Amino acid sequence: MAKVHNFSAGPSILPREVLEKAASAVLDFDNLKLSLLEISHRSKNFEAVMERARSLVKELMQLPDGYSVLFLQGGASLQFVMVAQNLLRERGKAAYIDTGTWASNAIKEAKIFGQVEVVASSKADNYRYIPKGYTIPADADYFHCTSNNTIYGTQIKEFPTSPIPMVCDMSSDIFSRRIDFSKFSLIYAGAQKNMGPAGTTLVVVKDEILGKTGRAIPAMMDYRTHISKDSMYNTPPVFAVYVSMLTMEWLVSNGGLEWIENINRQKAELMYAEIDRNPLFYGTVAPEDRSWMNACFLLKDPALEPEFDKMWKEAGISGLRGHRSVGGYRASMYNALPLESVQVLVEVMKEFERIKG
Amino acid sequence: MAKVHNFSAGPSILPREVLEKAASAVLDFDNLKLSLLEISHRSKNFEAVMERARSLVKELMQLPDGYSVLFLQGGASLQFVMVAQNLLRERGKAAYIDTGTWASNAIKEAKIFGQVEVVASSKADNYRYIPKGYTIPADADYFHCTSNNTIYGTQIKEFPTSPIPMVCDMSSDIFSRRIDFSKFSLIYAGAQKNMGPAGTTLVVVKDEILGKTGRAIPAMMDYRTHISKDSMYNTPPVFAVYVSMLTMEWLVSNGGLEWIENINRQKAELMYAEIDRNPLFYGTVAPEDRSWMNACFLLKDPALEPEFDKMWKEAGISGLRGHRSVGGYRASMYNALPLESVQVLVEVMKEFERIKG
Ligand SMILES: Cc1ncc(COP(=O)(O)O)c(C=O)c1O
Ligand SMILES: Cc1ncc(COP(=O)(O)O)c(C=O)c1O
Ligand SMILES: [Mg+2]
Ligand SMILES: [Mg+2]
Ligand SMILES: [Mg+2]
Ligand SMILES: [Mg+2]
């Protein structure tokens, strides 16, 4: 087996050239004769990394003035807390749509800080579609949505126009397609799916929405603290920020969001076409809401799973099992996954049909 | 210049063999033909890393039953928040000693959650000593101390016997010497000084002290959440945990805390002997409280700084400048710094005396 086709849902595949540069920086960074892991985060060498990472985000998002870019720790799950703590006013209300496990975890954390109105949910239908046509209450402090539901394989294709600040968890499809990022007042994303390794979380926030809750916020939990120190209030996760910077450089130098959107569309079309065509498999998600990042599908006859598993593993495919909470299969096709890997998977599915069909 | 003598205060020097293994894992981990950065944190390969890291901590600390070991994100600064949020009861009180910038940041965060009694402080004397002979109030919820004050170069040599749970920030001297760790109910340490790279924070907590505040705690901020999921409630900082594991393996395989304590004593004795002996320099800290990790010193004639700086830089020394808030010099002599590097620095100081004295 020459090569692994890595369909892991996250942490997940990164470009090979990024990994090579990262490994080299662990041994010797910037010809300092020191590892990237051994230098002060206040050194000019690392400050340049942080600065470059933040400017790549601005370039990729084409943000107007008035936004700050942060690289924090704690994962997207800590943002579930910080978003509410920084935006939900004392005796205020927040609006959420519940589109999956992560959305519902975000809702749970927000409830610690105040009232939460769930304006729409597809939970009763096992999260197999994205609710549409709901009303966002104009009197709530913010509206929270999840752009891509990693576990269920649904993705918001058209974002609503919100009368209040719109917050989005983009953890699992950040930088996978062109979007009008300026529609959002706050965007966050754990790096480990489409932007880098585990260990850092991107937060992009419009400064004007902050400081309005009337609540005392611990310095470490207050976005304004981190903004005022350019993400260097305390020691940042140096390596994870560096690898995220390298991954964004890879993306930009290859053609940016337009380039990657085109490839991601091709991969998704190929994958879903086979799921639909192949009589042994079926997709679990409403077709119009299918995620380009995570394609969830099942075998019509679950008894065939062991044989199918054996076959894709022999083809060098890894990470294809669905999330432990839902089972079945999930092909995660993040930016760094080449079209070729999807072709290999599709060939395996076809071959499986020939044997079993 | 053949080699860098890395006196950086953190992130700081790591053993060369650890860096080599880390770089190799970034390219191919466990012969999976996948990078450590690309695999699921739920894979058995990474679960083994997390398990091993946690058991190395228990081995090094020789902890009795009843403690949980966590690897979290957010840095030691997030622990300033979590400690108070998890231990300070509604309408309760916490006791802190104020021995430096980090202690005082910890106090600031705790005040968000309730009353803080500062039982002793050396602030008025520019933090140049560790207060002693103070009384820990038996009616407080916990007592918080900082074992090593990274910026000021003081270190607690003998911990008090506390009538209430004792919490300690050991960020800058964790695993540098033998200690009776069972005296503490909670220990935390940002990895990036003596245990690994930036990006993960060790927390060791006695289970029985948790769940008593009467306060609603967001899941991500609640130690019990992370304990119940063995530090895998959300995606852990995979690479930082792995490198910390490698560093602890290096420590244990060489002889553990007894071995490193012996080396650290030698380095500190050599360093302070020269600071005392050399008429051009003086130490800033009360001799009985001098840190083995961070030796702070000044030139009697500050006008000589540029010349001295030139000289140690030419000798391959890096990271010797004091914290930007205090100036002067700080030789950080963490576990991975070889005795040889201190010898080189001492030689430079002697040579400087020959030229200038
Ligand atoms: C959409 C989404 N949000 C949040 C999370 C949680 O991220 P983290 O593990 O970094 O807390 C995930 C993780 O898979 C996710 O897919
Ligand atoms: C003793 C001590 N505590 C806390 C911190 C803050 O750690 P972090 O940057 O990981 O938040 C430091 C950092 O230097 C430290 O030396
Ligand atoms: Mg989901
Ligand atoms: Mg079909
Ligand atoms: Mg200090
Ligand atoms: Mg002297």
From TrEMBL, chains A, B:
Extract the GO molecular function terms from the UniProt entry. Answer: O-phospho-L-serine:2-oxoglutarate aminotransferase activity; pyridoxal phosphate binding
The subcellular location is:
Cytoplasm
**SUPFAM superfamilies assigned:** PLP-dependent transferases
Q: Where is this protein primarily located?
A: cytoplasm
* Entry's Gene Ontology BP terms: L-serine biosynthetic process; pyridoxine biosynthetic process
The record's comment on cofactor binding reads: Binds 1 pyridoxal phosphate per subunit.
Listed A to Z, the keywords are: Amino-acid biosynthesis, Aminotransferase, Cytoplasm, Pyridoxal phosphate, Pyridoxine biosynthesis, Serine biosynthesis, Transferase
> InterPro entries given for it?
Aminotrans_V_dom, Pser_aminoTfrase, PyrdxlP-dep_Trfase, PyrdxlP-dep_Trfase_major, PyrdxlP-dep_Trfase_small
**Residue ranges annotated for the Aminotransferase class V domain, each copy included:** 5-345
Where is pyridoxal 5'-phosphate bound in this sequence?
A: 76-77, 102, 150, 169, 192, 234-235
Q: What Enzyme Commission number does this protein have?
A: 2.6.1.52
Identify residues that carry N6-(pyridoxal phosphate)lysine: 193
Q: What class of enzyme is it?
A: transferase
Tell me the pathway. Cofactor biosynthesis; pyridoxine 5'-phosphate biosynthesis; pyridoxine 5'-phosphate from D-erythrose 4-phosphate: step 3/5; Amino-acid biosynthesis; L-serine biosynthesis; L-serine from 3-phospho-D-glycerate: step 2/3
Q: What does this protein do?
A: Catalyzes the reversible conversion of 3-phosphohydroxypyruvate to phosphoserine and of 3-hydroxy-2-oxo-4-phosphonooxybutanoate to phosphohydroxythreonine.
Q: Belongs to which family?
A: Belongs to the class-V pyridoxal-phosphate-dependent aminotransferase family. SerC subfamily.
Which NCBIfam families did the record assign?
PRK05355.1, serC_1
What is the name of this protein? Phosphoserine aminotransferase
This protein's species is Schleiferia thermophila
